[in-house]
Amino acid sequence: MRLRNAFRVPGWAVAVTLATTVSACGGGSKEAAPASEPAGAAAGAAGGGQKVDPATAGNVTGVATIDGTAPKNEPIKMNADPVCVREAKGVQLQETYLVGADGKSLGNVFVYVKDGLGNYVYDQPTDSAKIDQKECRYRPHVFGMRVGQTVEILNSDPTLHNIHAMPTANQ
Predict the structure, then answer these.
(1) What is the mean pLDDT of residues 134-158?
(2) DSSP secondary-structure letter at 136?
(3) pTM for the whole thing?
(4) Is the CB of residue 107 less than 8 Å from the CB of residue 98?
(5) Which residue among 30, 63, 147, 153 has its CA within the 20 to 30 Å range from the CA of 23?
(6) Which is nearest to 140 in space by CA: 148, 132, 128?
(7) Do 23 and 17 touch, CB atoms closer than 8 A?
(8) What does the pLDDT look like over 85-128, one tens digit per residue?
(9) Which of 62, 64, 60, 63 is nearest to 10 (CA)?
(10) CA–CA gap between residue 22 and residue 110 (Å, rounded)
(11) CA 26 to chain CA centroid, nearest Å
(12) Residue 140 preceded by cis peptide, ω within 30
């Protein structure tokens, strides 16, 4: 199996959204970021560099596709909590491969610009990244957030369960 990218880039890019993925990248820098941060995060955190004007920023659009057939997703065992059995309504499958009706386009794909943006810095997002537990599933299943951005963890299920965030390199 091989993953293939099919992207058309109008101008230069700062953020990418694919399927249910919401993502944004940090500012570029010629200096290496610490290993705990993505490339370019150091410049945005330090405040140096040229500020990006969102009104003139470009976009990256495209579709991530798969060559061949994606493996079948395994079922999730939810019988440890009777509330999850009731809330989930039927057999639940892992979302390792979320393939579109065409059999080729992929969901739950995270794409980011690793380097090549120069010495630009980006405003810190003011909104929180959010993840919710609904029907005993994580919604969204895949998302991105910026260094320093807050995350809001919700539980919309009528049962006591938690996301156990245990960051070690980036508190």
Answers:
(1) 90
(2) T
(3) 0.61
(4) yes
(5) 30
(6) 132
(7) yes
(8) 999 888 999 999 999 999 999 999 988 888 888 888 888 889 99
(9) 60
(10) 8
(11) 13
(12) yes
